[in-house]
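User: Could you write out the 3D structure of this protein bound to zinc ion? I've included everything you need below.
Assistant: Certainly. Input first, then the structure.
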Amino acid sequence: MPTFDPKLSLHGDAAMYQWGAHPLTDGSVAYLQPNGGLGESNVGLVVGDGASCVIDTCWDPTQARRMLAEFDPWLADNPITTVVNTHSNGDHWWGNSLMPDEAVIVTSKASLGAMRDESPLALTAMRASLGLACRLPLPGRWGRTTRQGNHEFAPFDFASVRRRFPDTTFTGRTELNVGGRVLELREVGPAHTAGDLMVFDHGSGVVFGGDILFIDQTPIMWEGPAQNWVAALEQIITFGPTCIVPGHGPLATLGQVESLRTYFQWLAERAEHFHAKGESAQDATLDMLRSEEFATSNWATWRRPEVLVAGVGAEYRRLDGKTGSPNQFAMANTMIAIRSVAEALAR
Ligand SMILES: [Zn+2]
């Protein structure tokens, strides 16, 4: 495992914003992990009177310990009594085992169902096989795929993860009282995943958006439909937040939330257009990335444009009347193939 340097992202790039705990307003804190890439997920903290709530818990125990150390000044008198997991991807809940035994962990019912399919063992095996494959002289696309995959997964210690599932679930909406602070949890999935939820802190006006918010990078829509994602973003805009904490990336502005909404409206409209023409999801994605609309859009500069293909695939499944999620490993391979085209376009 590489040594930790707060001036670098976990993937070794220069940090584009400040790592660590950022006090927001009225006892709300954001813990940011630059640059918001794979596994560089953010965490929220809401501090009440003698009790605190942590929102998401990172991808592995090392990351979770680092996060807890940053929160220590607030936790000394206000221990963690409640934990919220915003969705089922491991980078938001595999640190749950580091939370106090007595803390109650809450998520949506749909997220708990999807969490059972997220396996640290499978990622440990994949990480090991990518490491081995990198030593082989694999040609062309296969070589690129393994090298990129190895680079992306190398910073994480999945073998040390002990899954601790949430204790309680809800559907629709619920409220939590954390030392006198009232937090509203709203289920907004399926969108990024099957059971996404967002946390609205009415006292401070802070919204913790989970992976409904990827900032400065293309959001990945595993489940969809885009229409649910648009509706979730509209809830944030209507709330009129004082501060917006994304699942990945720096603290967000309302303008960035509005750009995400326009992106998903564009994605849905274009996917429908190319689906009607009979184009495959992969060809439609390439056409969208090559279009003038894309080149002049707010999202042309977002990192990881290739993840658009997952969103187009999700819209195609909806248009075909299908349900269920894609195979994430197969999708990752498709995204890497599209990345080389996107990089060529950017040059
Ligand atoms: Zn995430």
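The pocket of zinc ion is lined by residues 41, 89, 91-92, 211, 247-248 (CB under 6 Å).
User: Perfect, thank you.
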